[in-house]
Amino acid sequence: MAASKTNSAAAGAAVAGQANTGKAAGKPAVAGKPAVAGKPAVAGKPSNRLSIRVDLASGARIGPGKVAVLEAIARSGSISAAGRALHISYRRTWELVEDLNATLGAPVVQTAAGGSGGGGASLTELGQTVVTRYRAIEEDCAAAARKHLAALHRVARGRAGEA
Fold it and tell me: By C-alpha distance, which of 57, 60, 56, 52 is closest to 141?
């Protein structure tokens, strides 16, 4: 497991629930976007956060972007709608899903062909497990890191006053 990118701001750690889709990372959590699953950030006040990526021996790399894609597919029932909701292309959304399928050795999303009745997508049992386990790891790591992130914030805040 590799931890990356901690941002200092307000005291108290949060785990970012934002998609890491190849765009600029390191943005503080903001109101309306969950800082920890189910817990929104304080309005207008950035927070410390921990961004987690899990690197499995199989070669699977599971991080906030891929998990956000799976969650968006579960919510919308569509790969294209998930991409639109996350502001990424259908192609990139599909590539993230295909990467998980290949590295985990089984599909994380099942699809139905489109047409007049419409298609659709839903998470497989494996896909649901990936999301659930990732979010559990994220919560546990956030709890373990909270005091350390707060200490780093205090040090950084003290140093900013010296400049």
Answer: 52
